[in-house]
Design a protein that fits this description.
The protein is mostly beta strands. It has three domains: 12-77 and 322-356, Immunoglobulin-like (Sandwich), CATH 2.60.40.1930; 82-310, Jelly Rolls; 496-534 and 578-742, no CATH class. The N and C termini lie far apart (59 Å).
Amino acid sequence: MDTPPDGYPVEIIGYVEPWIASPGSTINIKVSSTEPELKYHVVRLIHGPQGADTSGMRQEVITRTPHGKFTGRYQVAHPGSYAAIAERDYQVKSAGLEFTLYFQSHLPQAKHVQAIVSTLDASAKTGYAVVLTAVGAVEFWIGTGTAVEVISTGFKAALKRWIELRFTIQGIVFNYDIRPMPCFTDIPEPPSKGSRDLSHEADVSKPCILMFAATLARSPNEASLIATNFFNGRVDRPTMKSACSDGSVLAQWDFSRNMTSNNIVDVSGNGTGAEGQLINAPTRAVTGHDWDGMESDWTKAKHGYGAIHFHEDDLDDAAWETDFSINLAENLRSGVYAVEIESVNGEVRDTVPFYVHPTKTTSEELGAKVAYIISTITYLAYANEHVFDRTHLKDVVSSTWTAIPDKHAEKTVRRKDVGLSCYDIHNDRSGVIHSTAKRPILNMRPDYISWNFHRPRGLSADLLMLEFLERSGIPYDVVCDHDLHNYGKLGISRYGTIITGSHPEYHTVESLSAYADFIKAGGNVMYLGGNGFYWSCAIPYESSHRVEIRRGGEGIRSFTCPGGDRIFSSNGQSGLLWRSRGLSSNYLFGVGCCGEGPGPGVPYKRTDASKDAALAWMFEGISEDELLGEHGFGGGASGDEIDKCDYKIGSPYNTIVVATSTGHPDTFGMFPEDIVFPFQNVLGTQTGEVRSDVTYYESSGGGAVFSVGSINWFCSLGWNHFQNNIARLTGNVLKEFVRRHK
């Protein structure tokens, strides 16, 4: 059983699996607690925080759902990606074996051993392992049945340089050949070769578990029950042959096969069937040892994409034990729910969200006219983001941010085992490509306060709109991004109006197509956020709990993927900005992201166009000279990341700008994709291009799209308990859109 370190604070964290559920289904709740006695109940989240004040959040207790007590236990996740081939006999005869592979270290001096390939059973003293030592030197561990002999080479792997490694084991004779490869036209390090007689014959012919990028040995003489000593880097084209004169292939793995899956394929064709599984989602579709730079799309390349990039801090599934399960009612309405877990002594608690999507029956019973789209894909992208405390990021983190971590962010500091976000970088300084829902997501909490914007953000901000909808009395359903991805327009076709959250940044082809098809069919859209529909992403077919994000050389980003690594392994599509793919958000929503800044937001001022009598319904109860959104939990209503109307890049020509922000300070700047050479006049006071626009246009399908161009909008919407003109404007549009429903 796992135990917390000495002096560890009281803590409860958990997650729900699946995190998006259907009425009538069963959810499993997985909890880690320092406290032994816990109690729980289920609530529907219908209140957002008043800024940092969460005292007034009153959620709806679901009395039909079981509540109770259970015994707490401390649980940890085990990060580290690797490939594992289940135990099998490779038919290694007395002639011995020859093993070759290519590897590229991205963290040579990891301060711990890193296994490149291993069959070593340290308890039985059989098998072999190739490792990098703590200082990055290649070392071999060879089991003889009586001991594990260590063969040091003195060869140190260079950073990000491909190396061909070959070794043979024949009886007592061990040989190795290490050959660094040139990077295009540079001169590689000298090769290293060696031979040694073992004290006893190597015992490498027994059936074994084979691993790439990890081992089941903590050291040559200490076994581990779980994978350990993870490699940070790439492995390509491993091949096991007989060491006899005919050199028959015993197993050969081609990592370019089955690229979209979690499987690795043995292409030797000799019947050993050495297929394996990838654990904790290492990065596929990356350049290998023979990539020549002439083709950067793995779906078109004839060679060059046979590598997998492994990381010691990858995590795909925390794999915690289930503490209890809950059967959801068949007629449970859609919504954002949570399991509230509290220690019996009242010292500590956690609120663990999950989402229930609608069925045709629950939607009809409710009479839902509107769907509120929860940004579950974006929540995954930011899941457990804690750039502020990653020591090796200090040289790339903007000093303009003032880090004030809340209690949830503090948990991410001490619970590094629950993984990273797609805004972090790995210990080897490569970008985090995957994020998973199968773990506690500590910044997806109803009372989360952003460490850099110091206000509600993500789910906590989006709950403000849920509270607004509850107050409106208009029947609504909650639909997730993942529902749009899975069902397309069919998932929202029953509604007349759909409403986005505050930050719908990430979308797959499928989820964005659902919006496009809905608008074309005459649906109304209220885009009530900023930085929306910005990055493309992918969800693997076999692993719907995971999102894949690859960042190119444009856009606001915390890292840039190498030029050959920008095509999704999940589906072979381009992993760039939607704008770079040719579909800026302007085309569908009238606005596109143009700037951001850490400073307080500013209000909007109405335009002359807004005073047209045809738009009087929109501004009912709001005077013509009244500033919109002067106050909010993040300053004015235009702030954080902001969007503007731009006809040059796709805003429909009939888009009407009804309000625009009053001018941002120089703590705000333009997005790089809008900047042209020479780089000047890019800050808030220097250009009119850093602004939020509130826009409205009527579509060819007969519906309309209303957009506000700011993540801060909800923080002004909820200000003073919704007694403000942002709430009035939002309500006017919502009521008019509902009135128009066919």
